Each structure stands twice: as C-alpha cells, then as structure tokens.
Amino acid sequence: MLEANLGASAFEQHALRAKILGELHARPTRPLESPARILHFGFLLDAGQAEADREAVVAAALSRGLPGPDPQARQYRVEMAGVSLTWERHGEFVTHSWEFSGAESEKLLDPPPAALMQKVQLLPQPGPLLVAADLHIIAGDVEPAKLGDLFDPLQPAVSEANHGRALIASDFAPDTFGFVRIVIVNRSMPAIAAGRLAQRLLEIETYRTLALLGLPEAQRLGPSMRAIEAKLPNLLAALNHSQGVAQNRRLLDDITGLAAQLETDAALSLYRFGATHAYNDLVLERLESIDETTLPDYPSFNGFLTRRLQPAIRTCFNVESRQADLSRKLSRAAELLRTRVDTEVEQQNGDLLRQMGERVQLQLRLQQTVEGLSVAAITYYISSVLLKVLEGAHEAGAGLNPTVWTGAAIPFIAGFVWWTVRQIRKHHMGE
C-alpha cells in the first residue's frame, strides 16, 4: 500500500532517474550584477589531471570551512578571498571562471588582468592552458564606436544582443596579457539575463577555441593524404593491366599498405574530428541564442566567427570526407584485386587438379601394365621351377611327360598369380 503523503517518492525509483533529471540543471545560469569582471580559463586535462584539479578545489574550499564539489559534480561555485570561483568539468577540459564584482570593475577593462591574477593563483594550474578570456560587463550605454576603439581597429566585432538590451564587443584576439577581451554593456538586462549572456559569450570563446584543435590535425594529415591520392590513380591504372597471381599480389600488397596507413591516420584523428563537429555545433547554437542585431560599420559576432572560423572547420570536415572517400576507393580496389587473385588461384588449382588426375590415370595404366608383366614373369618363373621338378621325376622313372604337364599347369599358375597380385593390391588400397 503506497503512502499518499510521500508522492512520487513512494514508488521504486529507476537507477538513472536522478542523474537524468539532474542533467538539465548540471550547469545552471547564475545572476550577474553589473559592473563585474570575469577572468575565464580553460585547461585541457586527462582523467588523472581532472581528478587532481577537483581535489585542489576541494582542499581550497575546506581550508575556508566550505564543502568542496562532489566526485560526480560538474559545476561548483565558491567564494574565495573576495572573488567568486565557478568551476566546471567537461569531457576533456575544465574551466575556472573568477568573478570580480564591485568598485574595482567600474572602469572598462581596468585594472589590467595582471593585477587580478594574484587571486586567481589560489589554485594550482591543472593542465595546459587553452582558453583565457577577460570579460567585463558594465551598466549604462556606450557608443558602439567607443567600444570598437578598445580593440584592433581592423577586426572588432560589435553588435547588439538580447534584443537590443545589451551591446557586446570583442576582437577574439589575445591582448598583451594573453587574454581575449569581451565587453558587455548592460543597457537594461536583469541580473539573470546578464549572467546568461555572459555565460553564452564565454562558452562561444571556449568552444570555438576547442573546435580549432582539429585544424592542426587536419594539417598534419594533409601531406600523407595527398601522397595516397597521388599513388591511387597509378595503382588503379596498373590494376587494368596486371596479369598473373604474383603481379596481382604485389599490387594488392601496395593497396593494402596504403589502406592500412590511411586507416591508422583515420583512427588517430577520429576523436579530434568528432570533437570538432560537436564544438562547432555548440558555437553555432550559442551564437543563435544571444539574439544579435547587426550594427552599421561592424560585423556581428555571428558574422565574424562564421567568416573566420568556418573555413578552418570546413578544412577539418574536408579532410575527414577525403579520408572516407579514399577508404572506400581503396577498399573497392582491394576487393577487386582479391577477387581477381582468388579467381586466378582457383583456376590454377583446377589446372593442378586436372594434371593430378591425368597423372593418376597414367600411374594406374602403368601399374596395370606392371602388374601384367609381373604376373607373366612370376608365372614363367613358377612354370620353370615346376618343369625342373617334373624333369627330375621323369628321370627318376616316373611315367610323366614334363613338358605336357608343365604346359597344362601354366593356366592355373597364371590364374593363381593374378588372383594373388589382385588381393595384395586390394589390401594396400584398403589401407
């Protein structure tokens, strides 16, 4: 009998229910009051480094009398020495976002990030740094041209976001301190909307950087793929003229060697190109979610990144597509050659079997001839012995004609010898 006051908890829960329901709330958006400054870092980690990083966060929290993140936690926020840390763990990287609020963030991009790094160094570096962003949000309104003047005049992206309730600007290039600077001017957003916009912009910077990790891999694979593409037409042309099992097997070895090299490269790049697909999709989704409005004289974030990022992404996709296309061509060529080699081997086997059959027939005829000669020779020998015996008996006074009796015995001797030879042959054939 279920207890009504327990609600759904009265039922036996599915083992994955809590995890599935918690997935939607694993990385919640937090309100962000203006003004504020965020130094955002992304570090690439392996499994061991990720756990060591979590333990470092736990130790820092416990030293301040605060609970640390659970072993399965993917986001954790804690106050440390007057600065808020948001820690997030992802599949292959972790992010540390340090939020500075209040008077020290009133001037745009001032103080320089180097002055804030002392508090950031409360935690050890967990792994190699890949992402470093300096995001500054202020309240009020600023002329777009003044925002553009903060960045490289040749490549700033400035636009309205959140249906015109904010201005955003960045040049997506590291400054002298190594940070990619992002500015948000909060015209009329509530704190939760400001937090959501800041989170989206930091995710765009993080994911677009991670997406580009596939480009060096694509560039690394380029020479080997071009070499395979150059060799393949010659091998296919040789396929049309190759004759004989030995030549076809050498050609098959060449093709399977190229296929093995290609598949090795494809296996090594599979994860990286798959991650590039996923990160690029996330960038496009986040760009769509910030609700941009283009301003005169400046590219939007969407336009800027589409123009600068997508060619590199397409290079990765192109290499992946070429790998798949080459793999199909090599597989078809290898299959055709194997079929040809198998057919030639079967033909050779058939010829060999026919030759063996002819040899067997020849051996059988030879054996029969030898058996006939053997019967004649043995019959002659036995008849000669019998003749000698009968002649001796005749000389001893027996009334026998040796020649007549020997001649009469020859058919019986020959029949006995033939029967004996046949029995011996049957015995050996049975074995």
Structure description:
The two termini are 81 Å apart. A nine-stranded mixed beta sheet has the order 2-3-4-1-5-8-7-6-9, sandwiched between helices. The radius of gyration is 45 Å and the shape is elongated. The protein is of the alpha+beta class and 431 residues long. The protein folds into three domains: 179 residues, no CATH class; 121 residues, Methane Monooxygenase Hydroxylase, Chain G, domain 1; 63 residues, no CATH class. Helix content is 58%, strand content 15%. It comes from Rhodoblastus sphagnicola. InterPro entries: DUF3422.
The H/E string reads: HEHEEEHEHEEEHHHEHH
Helical proportion? 55-70%
Number of domains: 3
Whole-number mean pLDDT: 85
Q: What would you call the structural class? A: alpha+beta
Number of DSSP E strands = 9
Euclidean distance between termini CA atoms: 81 Å
Strand order of the largest sheet: 2-3-4-1-5-8-7-6-9
